Amino acid sequence: MTDNKNMRSYLLEDLGEEVILNVCVGSACHLKGSYDVINEFKKHIPELKLQSKVKLKGAFCLNNCTSAVSLRVNDFEVDKISSVEVREFLETLAEVKQWNT
Ligand code: FES
Fold first, then answer.
1. Structural domain tally of the chain?
2. Could you read off the pLDDT of 29-78 as tens digits, one per residue?
3. Which residues contact ligand 1 via a Cβ below 6 A?
4. Whole-prediction pTM value?
5. Which ligand 1 atom is nearest residue 67's CA?
6. Could you tell me the distance, in angstroms and rounded to a whole number, from the CA of residue 37 to the centre of ligand 1?
7. Helix, strand and coil percent figures for the chain, each rounded to 5
């Protein structure tokens, strides 16, 4: 995954109020664990009370297969997210958006 600093700056660019997380479930991403990533999001979104802030969706090939598991946050690509990075990703997102979790 892009390091935290880079992620913050590009998430800050213009996410708007609604944040849609599209996790790729295409073949390459499936093989690299996209369902584990989705399960971690399903676990941590409620734990961090982000259900009203974040929508989780599955997407077919995001044309970034060499960086599986691909995640798109609104219009921004986040490369190579793994299941162990999901919680930190959500915490960083909440911090950047100044949501109280
Ligand atoms: S299969 Fe996930 S980006 Fe192509």
1. 1
2. 999 999 999 999 999 999 999 999 999 999 999 999 998 999 998 888 87
3. 24, 26-29, 61-65, 68, 70
4. 0.86
5. 3
6. 14
7. 45, 20, 35
